[in-house]
Design brief:
By secondary structure, the chain is an alpha/beta fold. It contains five helices and five strands. The chain starts with 9 loop residues before the first strand and ends with a strand.
Length: 142
């Protein structure tokens, strides 16, 4: 039996702009190869985004867009091919949509070491996404 190592060409990374982002990016880069490109995904969940979706232009949307662009510039300077995508409102649904829309063939996302309500919320996101995407999912437990 010969086991072939997968080669991912488009790796999506679901970021939440917390302390785990660096770990998620590092793990995603570790799964890639010189031909891989990376899609940085973030979902805006401001009150404006709940009402206006992609038409939202509030402070949080602009701040999140800027943060994604900073990550993109940092990784591009290191020689990586990067694109960014913002989703709006429902975290799990938007991650699934953006993964499909971009044609990613691997998704990297993280869990949080929370307890109680936060664990329920973040755990629900990971489970919902994991069951909906049609590609491998690398879950980084932090």
């Amino acid at each position: 039996m010969v086991i072939e190592k997968p080669s991912y060409r488009k790796i999506a990374i679901a970021l939440d702009f917390s302390d785990i982002d660096q770990s998620l990016i590092a793990h995603a880069l570790g799964q890639g190869n010189p031909e891989s490109s990376y899609i940085l995904i973030h979902v805006v969940e401001s009150p404006s985004s709940k009402l206006l979706g992609a038409e939202s232009d509030d402070y949080e949307t602009r701040k999140d867009s800027t943060k994604l662009e900073q990550y993109k510039q940092m990784l591009t300077k290191q020689g990586y091919t990067i694109e960014t995508r913002l989703g709006f409102n429902q975290r799990a649904r938007e991650i699934v949509r953006l993964v499909a829309e971009t044609g990613a063939d691997l998704l990297v996302l993280g869990t949080h070491g929370h307890t109680g309500l936060k664990d329920f919320i973040y755990g629900e996101t990971v489970e919902a996404v994991r069951h909906e995407v049609k590609i491998p999912v690398l879950v980084i437990n932090t």
